[in-house]
Structures are given as structure tokens and as C-alpha cells.
Amino acid sequence: MQLGMIGLGKMGNYMAQRLMKAGHDVVGFDPNDKARAELAAAGGKAVDSLDKLVAALQPPRAVWVMVPAGKVVDDTVSALNDKLARGDVVIDGGNSNYKDDQRHAAQLAPKGIDYVDCGTSGGVWGLKEGYSMMVGGDEKAVARLNPIFEALAPGKDKGWGRVGPVGSGHFVKMVHNGIEYGMMQAYAEGFTIFKHKQEFKLDLEQIAQIWRYGSVVRSWLLDLTADALKRDPTLKDIAPYVVDSGEGRWTVAEAIELDVPAPIITASLIERLRSRDVDSFSDKLLSAMRNEFGGHAMKKE
């Protein structure tokens, strides 16, 4: 099957390579020369404009969009709406908000262009292990794309599936990331407790390695934790600053809107935000208040 790919960053190029390995033809566009060169070197066809991308694809076209969520996706969908035709399909494989998916689908519908949203998980390991894909869209549109999803997934019939109508794919991926936040936070807190138990002189990597086999908390995240601790046991080269892609925030907002209590995911999101405050005014004020009302010791800078 032939596929157009917009966005040839690390993930986009990895996905293109996996597709080509499975025998699919990939035509890719990215404004970055180096990204296009990487696709060409892997055997794909790289073009330097959207017009050339559309012209290189045989109708009915399938175009996978792998660009940052928000305005870039909006602009890309608008541009494709002007260039594609009835029967073509746009797949957003990035991290868009599901409400944006619904808006994009409505934007393309008058011209008969299908829209499919695909929540994608797997990161840089996806090239080797395959990607977990949560797909939303019209049943017929998704069925047409089955060869693409089967090639990208860990197996033809595992690790992917249509979960519902347009928007549902990214909705499921959003909650997936919220769960991921909570799991990561739990591991981080547990290993921090180990680190502070000085009298036992615990080997954190050894513990992670033990847990990887047979333990009820074993997971791929634990595998990655063990690898990180093996490379840098004290994490001396890593800054205590944790970014977020936005999906954890959306998950918390959705939980509030649906009146669903989600304290673990919410707390893990707050902890990520807290990690960025290197000069916490709130902590300073808390210390000052304790000193004011109780004369408690106050640590100076």
C-alpha cells in the first residue's frame, strides 16, 4: 500500500522505515532537509512540498500526519483540505486533543475526505518492537487502512484496533498517558524511598532487575528504569525537571468534566509541574509561616 507521510521527525521516519520493511511505499514531506534525506536514505521518496506529496500519491490517497498538536496540525489539515479529493483519507498519528479530531473531521467531510485519528504509543522502540495504536474513525475508512496498521503494530492482530468513532483513538491515548503518569510517579517515589534508606546501602538497579521477573509490578517502564539506573546509578547527569506532552492535563480536565475522581493521575501531573519550580516561592512562604506562628527553624539560602 502507498502512504504519504507528513512530518519526518524521529518518530515519523521510524514509522516510515517499519512500513517500508513490510513492503509499503512511503512518500514523505518535511520542511527539514535532513529529515527528508533520512527517508530517502532508507528507501522512501522524499519531496519538498505538500503539492508534490499529493501529486506523487495514487488516488484514493492516504496521508499520515505526524506533526506537533495544535496549530501545526490545524494548518496541515486546512492545507490538505484544499489539495485532496473525495475518497482520500487523512490520519493524524500525533498527540492531538480528541476534540480537535472531531473538528478536523467536520472540516474535511464536505469534500468527502475521511479523517482517522490514531493514538500512537511506543516511542523510539517502535521501529523494532512495533507501535500500540488506538484508532478512531469510520469503520470503512479504518478497514481500508488495515494493512498500514498491521505493518506498524507489534503483530498483525495485536497491539492495535479501532476503538470507536472519530476522536476516540486520541481520547483512549490521552487516558493511556494519564495512567502512564501515575505508574511513572509510583516507581519514582518507591525508588526514592530506597535511596533515602542509607543504612541498607541498596543497589537500586539490582532491585529493578529483580522486579523485572515474576514481580507483580514488572512492566516495560520498569525495564526502562533498570536500563537508566544501569547507565547512571545516581542520575547525576539528569536535571530534576519533568516535561509533559499535555495529555495528562487533558486527562485530568476530562475527569473533572465527567465527575470522575482521578487523584493519582492528578497528583502525578502536579508533581511534574512542581519539578519545574527551581526557586519555589510557595515553599519559602510555607517555611516563613511556620517560623512566624511557631518560631520553627527556618533554613536560609
The low-confidence parts are none
The coarse overall form would be elongated
Number of strands: 8
- Strand residue content: 5-15%
Rg over CA atoms, rounded to whole Å, is: 23 Å
Structural class, by secondary structure, is alpha/beta
SSE order, one letter for each helix or strand: EHEHEHEHEHEHEHHEHHHHHH
Straight-line N-to-C gap: 63 Å
The biggest beta sheet is recorded as:
8 strands, mixed
Mean pLDDT: 95
Helix fraction bin: 40-55%
The side-by-side strand order for the widest beta sheet comes to 3-2-1-4-5-6-7-8
Describe the structure.
It is built from 14 helices and eight strands. With 301 residues, it is of the alpha/beta class. The chain is elongated and about 75 Å long. The mean pLDDT is 95.
Task: Briefly summarize what is shown.
This protein has 301 residues and is of the alpha/beta class.
Per-chain topology:
Blueprint: E1 2-6, H1 10-21, E2 25-29, H2 33-41, E3 45-47, H3 50-56, E4 62-65, H4 71-83, E5 89-92, H5 98-108, E6 114-121, H6 126-129, E7 132-136, H7 139-144, H8 146-152, E8 160-164, H9 168-196, H10 204-211, H11 220-231, H12 247-257, H13 263-274, H14 281-294
Parallel strand pairs: 1-2, 1-4, 2-3, 4-5, 5-6, 7-8
Antiparallel strand pairs: 6-7
Helix pairs in contact: 4-5, 9-12, 9-13, 10-11
List keywords for this structure.
301 residues, alpha/beta, eight-stranded mixed beta sheet, 14 helices
